[in-house]
Design brief:
The structure holds two protein chains of two kinds. Chain A is α/β, with parallel strands linked by helices. Chain A is built from eight helices and nine strands. Chain A is globular and about 45 Å long. Chain A has two domains: about 170 residues, Rossmann fold (3-Layer(aba) Sandwich); about 60 residues, no CATH class. By secondary structure, chain B is an all-alpha fold. Chain B has two domains: about 50 residues; about 210 residues, MetI-like (MetI-like fold). In chain B, about 85% of the residues lie in helices and about 0% in strands. Chain B is flat and about 75 Å long. The chains are: A alpha/beta, B mainly alpha. Chains A and B meet through β5 of A and α8 and α9 of B. The structure holds adenosine-5'-triphosphate and magnesium ion. The site of adenosine-5'-triphosphate has 12 residues of chain A, from β2 and α1.
């Protein structure tokens, strides 16, 4: 088991760092160790894909970073501070698997929700407005539509725009495109990479898909299950300005094979 | 995509589809109006036919024609009685639902309150209305108060249960979102729980609209000389079946209008519903 710490390429304090994080859930019937002794670090502006079988604790790990779950042991740091502090500072945007849009709010009102709760803070100077964010995710003209009037892919775009409001330095995404068809997913993957490069946000992206993990990430953290732990952190040696066509190339195929092998026999 | 298509109105296929959709909608609306009317007329015809055909005595059951005549002849008297019942039903509706909404809010925020008082609420709810009414008359006297109390009690339970369910039916990911945004408890309540609960609340309010009227009428049965309930009792003892039917018609007409008003309020407040969900 190589639970090594990934290199920190860009800045001094990593955007996200976990040190020996263990999470246990105690229920009536048994105690589940969701993740055990997980350590990694992602530099500012990095893109880390989290890949692993169902139940290996990917969501739990993101929840620890977002201060939704307390680790039983070890600690997580977000830009050198505690997750709770990062949450209060609005350093973190979270994109959920189901878009978690509020049905009674229009797309624009959903994106603007973060401005109305938790102290009603104003946008930081220079941060894009809700309208601009909807444009960024390709939803110009849909501002006044309600969630039930949007397709699944469009709802996830709204959810992404909401997470980007206030220009958070870290974006946590928990299988955001898992429920979408392949074409929509491909398109959103390409757009996510574009947005990541435009905004310089650090992204932790959970997925079941080997292709998605390899295409999106600068690094892929492969997790093993029972208990969830880091198997290996694989650097992605592909050009930064890659398009979807990269998936037809030899290096991509080699990377996919390697990730597959790490996930273990199917 | 769709946006571009709808702005270029020249597309004949699109126009035809829009026209078809509008026509289908008109037909559906027409059906919704006409079919219930047809059913009602058929029922009236059968009723009139039976009364005349079997030669039913007027004190057993009146013919619909006589009922309508009575309705017109005694309209003023019927309305002045309805005013009592309507006032009691409306006030009971407001009181019962208000207390239920506040109670549900407290229950959701303070679980121990729910655990302490919910069994009592269930217990009171198992007492039939006809049994509650005399108890309340003894407690509150012969005035309008016991009728309001019966109406309120009858509204209270469904709204409490539905409201608690609605306030707790929040999408767990939306709750996590609120936490990520550091939202306070009151923000979670106003921005998330209450909105989630509104459809649940309105389905309870629609039930309340008719049950509040029933509550007021039952209250009037027990004691009073005014109101639809009192009139029903008087008509029954006088074997005045035409007046009895006319009174019942006025009472249920009021309950129906009350229901329609709440439905209209629902459509006004909850505009985000997916068409299939309503
Ligand atoms: N709140 C909880 N209470 C009890 N057990 C939990 C809780 N949350 C997660 N677990 C357990 O922790 C383990 C990891 O769950 P987690 O949701 O993090 O997995 P995952 O990798 O995200 O899976 P998936 O890919 O299916 O979403 C599972 O065994 C799960 O049963
Ligand atoms: Mg998960």
């Amino acid at each position: 088991m190589t639970s090594g710490t990934a290199s920190v390429p860009r800045a001094a304090a990593p955007a996200v760092a976990c040190e020996g994080v263990t999470v246990r859930f105690v229920t009536d019937r048994r105690t589940v160790t969701a993740i055990e002794d997980v350590s990694f670090a992602v530099g500012q502006g990095g893109f880390l894909s989290l890949l692993g079988p169902s139940g290996c604790g990917k969501s739990t790990l993101l929840r620890v970073v977002a201060d939704l779950v307390e680790p039983s042991a070890g600690s997580a740091r977000v830009r050198g501070a505690s997750p709770a502090q990062a949450r209060r500072d609005r350093s973190i945007g979270f994109v959920f698997q189901d878009s978690a849009l509020l049905a009674w709010r229009t797309a624009l009102q959903n994106v603007a929700l973060p401005l109305e709760v938790g102290g009603r803070r104003a946008l930081p100077a220079g941060a894009p407005t809700p309208r601009e964010l909807l444009k960024l995710v390709g939803l110009e003209g849909w501002e006044n539509s309600f969630p039930h009037e949007l397709s699944g892919g469009m709802r996830q775009r709204v959810s992404l725009a909401r997470a980007l409001l206030g220009a958070p330095s870290i974006l946590l995404m928990d299988e955001p495109f898992g429920a979408l068809d392949e074409f929509t997913r491909d398109r959103l993957n390409a757009e996510l990479r574009r947005i990541w490069r435009e905004t310089g946000t650090t992204i932790l992206f959970v997925t079941h898909s080997v292709y998605e993990a390899a295409f999106l990430g600068q690094q892929v953290m492969v997790l093993a299950a029972n208990p969830g732990r880091v198997r290996e952190i694989v650097p992605v040696d592909l050009p930064e300005d890659r398009g979807l066509a990269i998936r037809e190339t030899e290096p991509f195929a080699r990377l996919v094979t390697r990730l597959r092998n790490l996930l273990g026999p199917v | 995509m769709t946006l571009a298509a709808s702005s270029s109105a020249a597309d004949p296929g699109l126009l035809a589809a829009q026209a078809r959709h509008a026509a289908a909608k008109r037909r559906a609306a027409l059906r919704r109006r006409i079919l219930p009317l047809v059913g009602l007329l058929a029922l009236l015809a059968i009723w009139a036919g039976l009364v005349h055909g079997l030669d039913v005595k007027p004190f057993v059951a009146p013919s619909p024609v006589v009922v309508v005549q009575t309705l017109i002849a005694k309209f003023g008297m019927l309305m002045s009685n309805l005013a009592w019942t309507a006032t009691e039903a409306l006030l009971g509706f407001l009181l019962g639902n208000l207390v239920a909404i506040i109670g549900a809010t407290l229950f959701v925020h303070f679980k121990s309150l729910e655990e302490t008082f919910f069994p009592i609420v269930v217990l009171i709810n198992t007492i039939p209305v006809v049994a509650k009414a005399p108890i309340l008359v003894l407690l509150l006297g012969n005035g309008i108060e016991p009728k309001i109390a019966v109406a309120a009690l009858i509204c209270f339970f469904p709204t409490l249960v539905n409201m608690v369910r609605g306030l707790e039916a929040v999408n767990p990911q939306a709750l996590e979102l609120m936490r990520v945004l550091s939202a306070s408890r009151s923000e979670v309540f106003w921005k998330l729980r209450l909105q989630t609960a509104l459809p649940y609340l309105f389905s309870a309010l629609k039930i309340s609209a008719s049950t509040a009227t029933i509550g007021a009428i039952v209250g009037e049965w027990v004691s009073t000389t005014n109101g639809i309930g009192a009139l029903i009792v008087q008509a029954m003892y006088a074997f005045d079946s035409a007046l009895l039917y006319a009174t019942v018609l006025v009472g249920s007409g009021f309950a129906f209008c009350f229901f329609l008003a709440i439905s209209a309020a629902e459509r006004f407040v909850i505009r985000w519903h997916a068409p299939a969900a309503t």
